[in-house]
Amino acid sequence: MRRGDFSEWAVFIAVAEEGSFTRAAAKLGLSQSALSYAVRMLEQRIGVRLISRTTRSLSLTEAGERLLISLRPAFDHIDSEIAALTALRDKPAGTIRITTFRHAAQTVLWPVLSKLLQNYPDITVEVHVDEGLTDIVAERFDAGIRMGEQVQKDMVAVRISPDVRMAVVGSPAYFANRPARRHPAT
DNA sequence: GGAACACACGGCGACTACAG
DNA sequence: CTGTAGTCGCCGTGTGTTCC
């Protein structure tokens, strides 16, 4: 997956939430044509129509609705974590190690990391993709994404999607210095 | 005179071509 | 990949016509 993909997901969310390319463009500080191009490229690459357009209005397709429901909490969660990091440090920097499975990496993690890395270039993120059950604590990962049934008892889990059973999990050590969350912040 | 309908037109928003 | 300019087409509104 190319790095440029990240912004396309953010564009999709903005358009979906605003219900208008023009308003989304104003919100993101881009031109309307840039957003149209980004969404078109995104749809072409994944081969799924996400937004139904007419000359005067737009609406989300079923696939678009599902994608928005899945992505929005993840973006919100990353935003809240960034805010928490900012509160702890004047200038966030360092390495975050995350383990996840391929589907979550493609649909959830990459889009939010795009925003994170743009805003905090001093942060390095190590993403380990594997379909097995990597031990987050033993392998010294800071966080991971697991299906609900894969969340172990000693993990601190935050659900990130209402319709997909995915959750962000972190080692107790990671959350020891941070406030525990039951839900992603909005 | 007032209500209902049909039509024309301008505004607005999305798309596309093209240049940088 | 982004911005500009031009094009297309839907929608809202104003105006004219018809009917009661």
From TrEMBL:
<dbReference type="Pfam" id="PF03466">
    <property type="entry name" value="LysR_substrate"/>
</dbReference>
<keyword id="KW-0805">Transcription regulation</keyword>
<dbReference type="Pfam" id="PF00126">
    <property type="entry name" value="HTH_1"/>
</dbReference>
<keyword id="KW-0238">DNA-binding</keyword>
<keyword id="KW-0804">Transcription</keyword>
<feature type="domain" description="HTH lysR-type">
    <location>
        <begin position="1"/>
        <end position="61"/>
    </location>
</feature>
<dbReference type="InterPro" id="IPR058163">
    <property type="entry name" value="LysR-type_TF_proteobact-type"/>
</dbReference>
<dbReference type="InterPro" id="IPR000847">
    <property type="entry name" value="LysR_HTH_N"/>
</dbReference>
<dbReference type="GO" id="GO:0003700">
    <property type="term" value="F:DNA-binding transcription factor activity"/>
</dbReference>
<dbReference type="InterPro" id="IPR005119">
    <property type="entry name" value="LysR_subst-bd"/>
</dbReference>
<dbReference type="GO" id="GO:0043565">
    <property type="term" value="F:sequence-specific DNA binding"/>
</dbReference>
<dbReference type="GO" id="GO:0006351">
    <property type="term" value="P:DNA-templated transcription"/>
</dbReference>
<protein>
    <submittedName>
        <fullName>LysR substrate binding domain-containing protein</fullName>
    </submittedName>
</protein>
<dbReference type="InterPro" id="IPR036388">
    <property type="entry name" value="WH-like_DNA-bd_sf"/>
</dbReference>
<dbReference type="InterPro" id="IPR036390">
    <property type="entry name" value="WH_DNA-bd_sf"/>
</dbReference>
<comment type="similarity">
    <text>Belongs to the LysR transcriptional regulatory family.</text>
</comment>
